[in-house]
Amino acid sequence: MPFLSDTLARVKPSPTIAVSTKARELKAAGKDVIGLGAGEPDFDTPQNIKDAAKAAIDRGETKYTAVDGLPELKAAICAKFKADNGLDYAPAQVTVGTGGKQVLYNALMATLNPGDEVIIPAPYWVSYPDMVLLAGGTPVIVEGGAETGYRITPEALEAAITPKTKWFIFNSPSNPTGAGYTRAQLKALTDVLMRHPHVWVMSDDMYEKLTYGDFEFCTPAEVEPGLYDRTLTCNGVSKAYCMTGWRIGYAAGPAGLIKAMGTLQSQSTSNPCSIAQWAALEALTGPQDFIASNNAVFQRRRDMVVDMLNAADGITCPVPEGAFYVYPSIAGCIGKTSAGGAKIVDDEAFATALLEEKGVAVVFGAAFGGSPAFRISYATSDDLLKEACTRIQDFCASLT
Ligand SMILES: Cc1ncc(COP(=O)(O)O)c(C=O)c1O
Q: Where are the domains of the chain?
């Protein structure tokens, strides 16, 4: 009898974490490596948020809380949805978990039966397909290629829907591409969903506040109120508030679904960290001005990286609307050979050779279901980004 479960055999470890680990190992071995794999802001958590956590400890807020979130935090989340998205949710329609990841996982675990299909646009955040598999469902990948700016078309969504479709996962701005859907582009997708009342929508709005220029964020339940009763709107404090380590995410949706997710959480992790919840309350209700100043830095870096990558031989890099990733196509590099003798047969070969020959760690596109390309996280210093892009230009110039 095998010791490990069949469930585990269905999933693979996160490739983005694998890249960061490899870059760290090479660095520890004395190699000059620039890691561009991390999916977290390089800015520290704002001081008022840290102070709120310290005050919570001093007040003795160190006990179990309500399983799916403090009432004070839920009230702040309701206010956030109203103010930012025009969405009315009561506290019983809100759940708080240990990061956005747990919230998404709870929703899938609470709803998927064997054979249920989940539509996932590609390139996708690495965890979606594996979470679906863990929950016993079947991921159905819909390609959003470089020619559509890494967005799926309404026709492709329509074609992917079957009687077994339970969820459509939507993520804008996207990890890994940074692509954001305009209101009109999203409306075209929600029009399709309105024709299929059995399909639920899981909107992962994790990068809502990280958008640049005149791009305006929008979310499905707001764009199409007819979807409100079958949409789970997910968000969290990890990215916008520089709180990846604190592990607080949240979602709002129909009360029955929220209750089921709470039941699951009550028998797995119970409440998210009490102290982190008080910190998240301060994040949502305290000063928000640092977000704009962080975004100005991100936008400057995005523009520099896109310009430098587009100047590299064989690379084409679209300008993303949000998040802190760029997703250049390397179609022009495929079939070439590196100075070190590596055959660039695909994006994994490109990323491996780039790391070994130039010490730049990026995540290859196949990990996100979108090839041939790679993802750069620009949540690192301007100097490191400039050096990394120079090395990528040198690497591309050396390909023959
Ligand atoms: C698209 C997307 N959703 C959800 C998450 C999970 O966020 P958290 O760290 O709050 O679990 C991430 C983190 O990388 C993400 O990129």
A: 6-44+290-394, 63-286
Domain 63-286, what architecture?
Answer: 3-Layer(aba) Sandwich (3.40)
Q: Whose CA is nearest to atom 13 of ligand 1?
A: 39
Q: From CA 241, how far away is CA 21, in angstroms rounded?
A: 24
Q: Which residues lie below 8 Å from residue 4, measured CB to CB, with a gap of 6+?
A: none
Please name which of 398, 384, 334, 394 lies closest in space to residue 37, comparing C-alpha atoms: 384
Q: Does pTM surpass 0.90? A: yes
CB 222 within 8 Å of CB 211: no
The span from the CA of 325 to the CA of 175, in Å, is 7
> What is the whole-number distance in angstroms between the Cα of residue 248 and the centre of ligand 1?
10
Ligand 1 mean position to 101 CA, how many Å? 6
Going from the first residue of the chain to its last (400 residues), give the mean pLDDT of each consecutive group of 10, the final group possibly shorter: 87 76 86 90 96 98 98 98 98 98 98 97 96 96 93 98 98 98 98 98 98 97 98 98 98 98 98 98 98 97 98 97 98 97 96 94 95 96 97 97
**What topology is assigned to 6-44+290-394 in CATH?**
Aspartate Aminotransferase, domain 1 (3.90.1150)
